[in-house]
Amino acid sequence: MNIRLRGRFSAALLVASAIAVSSVTSASAEDTEYQLGHESLVNAGHDSGYSKSNPLDKNDPHWGWQLGDFYVSDFTRATKLDDGTTVFLKNVGDEVSLWYDLEEDITRLNGDENLSVAEDKNGWDQRFQVPQQNFGHGMLIVKHTDYTNDSKTTVYSDFLAAKASTTAATKIDVFEEGDYEVALDYEIKRPRIDVFGWKPTYKYSNYQVSFKFSVRNGNSMIFPFDLKTGAEMTNATATADGFRLDLAKSRYLDIDIKREVLNDGKDGLVEDTRFNKPAKDGNEYTDEGIYVITVSNRYTGQQTTKTIYVGTDDVLKAHAATGEPISAINSLLADGAEVAPDGSIISSDGSTAISEAGDHAEPADQNIDTQEITSDSSSDVGSTESKTHTDRFSTPQALIAAGGICVVVLVVLLTIGIAKRRRARRTVDLQRDGGEE
Predict the structure, then answer these.
(1) What would the pLDDT profile of 6-33 be if each residue is shown by its tens digit?
(2) How far apart are CA 268 and CA 277, in angstroms?
(3) Would you kindly state where each structural domain of the chain is located, as residue ranges?
C-alpha cells in the first residue's frame, strides 16, 4: 500500500509540476514576441531587382493572404522613434532574436495547386546591392549598421525552401546593438494556360516584405577603471594615477564629462571649471581635478552621474567624496578637521563631520546610512538589469506558479484521502471476518 501510495503521489507531482512549468515558459515566450513587417508586402515587379513597390490589387495572385510573419523575441522593452522605427531595448542576459514563421505550403500557396514559390535563378536586389545570383526559393537579406555607420549585409539563399513547413518558426540571428534593415525577396509563379494539367508556360511576379528595427542596450552606466591598478572605480572615489572610461559595449549612450580644479581667489581656494565636453569609450584622464561624468540614455530617458577625483589634494578629494562646497570644507579644515583616506571629513574630536555623499554625522543613537548610492555601484549593475528583465513577467509567472502549487496540493490530498478510505474499508472487512490487518 505504501509503495502504491508513493507511486501515485510521485506521478501526480510530476504531472502538476510539468503543467506549471510549461505554463510559465509559454507565458514568458508569448510576452516577448513583437511582430514586424506584416503590412509591408508589395509587388516588386519582375526581373527588376525587386526595386518596385507596387501595392497589391484585387487581381494580384497574392491578394488577401500572407506567406508568413517575422517577429522579434527576448527583449526587455520596445519603443518607437519619431520616424516609426521600432527600438528593442536589451539588458544583461537578453538575446534579441529575429524569427520567421512560415504559414504557407510553398508548393500550394493559399490552397491553390497552380500557385507556388518559384526558384528565382537570376535574382538581384537593387536597394541592398545584392549582385545577380540564384536566389533559390526566396532570399532573406539582413543589413546591419553599427555605431560607426559601418554596414554589413548577410544573405540567406533558398530561405523559404529550407523553412518549407506550415509549422516552421525559424530563428535567424541574435542581434547586438545597431540598426537593422530586413527584406525577404521571393518569386511566385502560376501557369499562363492549363489544359487538362498541361502547363507549357508560366507567369512570374516578384514580391518583397521589408522592415527596419534597432537594438540598444537599456542601461545608462559608465565604468571608470584606475589606470594603474585596473580596478573599477565606483562613485565618489579617488585615484592618484587617472582613469579610463569603459562603456561595456553600450555604444549609443550620450556621455559628458566636466573637470574642475582649485584656483586661488580672494576668499581662498575656489572651484574653476576647466572643460565641460562630450566623452567617448576608451578616453583616459590623468590631469588633477574633479571629474563629473554624466551618462544619458536617449531611449529610456535615464541618467547616471559619477564623480571621480584624480590627484592627491585633500580638499578636492573631500569635495569629490562628500559633494560639499569647497568653502564649507575649507571652513571645517580651518577648525581643525582632517580629510580621511576615503574622502570623509573627521572633526578635531575624532567624530565624522561629513561622510561620503555629503551625509553629516548624527548622534550615535540614530540610524545613519552612509552607504553609497546603489545605482552608482558597479556591483549592482548586473542584478539591477536582471531584475528589470525578470519583473516584466513576475506577476503572471507568480500567479501561474501559485496555481501549479495548488494543483499539486489538491492532488496529494485527494490521493491520501482515497488511500485512507480504502485502508479503513479493508480493516473493517478483516475485523468482520475475524482476521487481523
Answers:
(1) 555 444 444 444 444 444 433 333 457 8
(2) 27
(3) 1-32+392-437, 33-217, 223-378
